[in-house]
Design a protein that fits this description.
Elements (H helix, E strand, L loop, with lengths): L1 E10 L5 E8 L6 E7 L3 E5 L11 H13 L4 E7 L10 H16 L6 H11 L3 H6 L2 E6 L3 E4 L19 H6 L3
Helix pairs in contact: 1-2
């Protein structure tokens, strides 16, 4: 995703920042392959810098859904990274959203949409946006999303200078 606009309106009592942002999904993303296991959560990837443990949002999403639903099934997720790490493009958040959606099907679970959004919000402010996609207005922490008119852009150039800038660290440096 990209942020067409991003207004940081100040720090909230909960430690997050109050935002108003215009979000847009992109046509590029990571590839995730899900395989049912009897138990456990396994992550596999050839990317040398991608954590494959409980710090990964895919792992955290699977654990959160398992704990919420009481499901004891497992999953193996094979990740092919297409998006750079910590580039502000929402790769981790989109992977968390896809993981929740995929596991609902793979584990044959039913949960209400508002519960899905609540679970997503626990994982990260951008996660609920990826349940909707397209062009949305994000407010609050950015996790309250509203569909808005599509923005047409035939071409968009994204430049990655190769710097890793984890979102949490960026916001922690704001006053």
């Amino acid at each position: 995703k990209i942020n067409w606009t991003l207004e940081i309106l100040g720090k909230r009592p909960d430690g997050y920042h109050e935002l108003r942002t215009l979000l847009q999904t992109l046509s590029v993303g990571d590839e995730l392959i899900f395989e049912l296991l009897e138990r456990g959560i396994e992550l596999h990837s050839a990317h040398p810098e991608l954590p494959l443990n409980e710090t990964n949002l895919i792992y955290r999403a699977a654990r959160l859904l398992a704990d919420f639903s009481g499901c004891r099934r497992g999953v193996r997720v094979t990740i092919t990274k297409q998006l750079p790490l910590a580039a502000g493009l929402g790769g981790g958040s989109s992977n968390a959203a896809v993981t929740l959606l995929a596991l609902l099907k793979l584990w044959e679970l039913q949960i209400e949409p508002h519960e899905l959004f609540r679970l997503g919000s626990q994982l990260g402010a951008d996660v609920p946006f990826f349940f909707i996609g397209g062009t949305c207005l994000g407010v609050g922490r950015g996790d309250e999303v509203y569909i808005t008119s599509e923005i047409e852009a035939e071409h968009l150039l994204l430049v990655n200078p190769g710097l890793s800038m984890p979102t949490r660290e960026v916001y922690d440096n704001l006053q």
